[in-house]
Each structure stands twice: as C-alpha cells, then as structure tokens.
Amino acid sequence: MHFEILVEDLSGKTTLDILMSKIIGEQHTYRVISYRGIGHIPKDLKSHTEVHNRILLDRLPELLKGYGKTYINDPAKYSTALIVVCDLDDRCLKKFRQKLLDMLSECKPEIATRFCIAIEEGEAWLLGDIPAVKEAYPKAKNNLLNRYKNDSICGTWEHLANALIVGGAEKLKNQPWYAIGKIKSEWAQNITPYINEGCA
Prior knowledge:
Elements: E1 2-7, H1 10-24, E2 29-34, H2 56-72, E3 80-87, H3 93-107, E4 112-118, H4 123-127, H5 130-136, H6 142-147, H7 156-164, H8 168-172, H9 177-191
Parallel strand pairs: 1-2, 1-3, 3-4
Helix pairs in contact: 1-9
C-alpha cells in the first residue's frame, strides 16, 4: 500500500518522515508533503489563495479532486490512501471533523481518505512520549514535562518550549514565525527517533 500524507508544516513532515517507516514497515511506501500553515476550508470549495502560498486547508478541496482523478484511472497500479494531518488548535473537534467530512463528500475522491487531527498541536506527539523527550534533551525540565496531560489544550508547543529552552516560549514568541518553525522542526528531528511507535 502507498500512503500520501499531507501535513500543515515542516515539523509535522519531519516527525512523520521518521515515524512512518517504524509504523508501516518496508512492505509499504509513503510520501509526506508539507504545507505552510493550516488555513481554512473555503466556503465554496474553491481555493482563493495562490498555489505557491501552499496553505493546506485552502488548497485541500482541489487536492482531493486531483488525487481522485489521478487514482481513478489507474486502480491496478497500487492501493493508495490519502492521510491529511492537521492541528486542532482552538477549534471544536466535533465541528472541525464534520466540516472535513462534509468537504470530503463534496469532493468525492476515489481513494481512501482519512483525517488525523492532533489535539491541540503536533508537538503533542512529542510530549506523548516523555522518555523520548528526555533521551533527546536530558536537561529538559522534569517538573514541566510531568505536568503535561495527553490531549490537553494547554498551548502544547509553548509547554514543550518552556521545558526545553532557557526563556521558554516567551523568548521564542519574539522570533519570526519561520524561526519558530525551524526550532519546532529541530525538536521533531531530535525527539522522534526515540519515540516508541506505540505512543504515536
């Protein structure tokens, strides 16, 4: 089976590029494609942003239709599944999932499509395996790491930043968004190799 995986940012791609081979083994293939943010599902299901902006939800209706057209004509090539990974952020999970499913039914893709929603952000995957965080960052603040509750809405990346770096999230918030993205990717690169795939 082949998995096409769409993620909203580079740190998500970094995490999945490392985790997927652990999860699916060598008999399957995958490709992870990152975007430059999550954006919003367009009301008319037509993207109103430029292609080069690469905003995931803004482009998703067109992407779903494109995948459908691509794979309907070549079903014998191999079985393909599309997986869309995005953060919940501060949205209502039930409403957000329903909007995604409504969009999916309108776009009628011809391949199996699944939505994986990180509660609250992708950094929750990293915090879901505290021993992996400690392996990558032995000086991380135990009191903060041990206070994290899985799937809590708590400012996840900020919580991880406070545990890992001097000055924590407040120091990072003064940085441009792309610098924060780079740091998040470094966390993913350093922590993910130690993650027990059962925690992912």
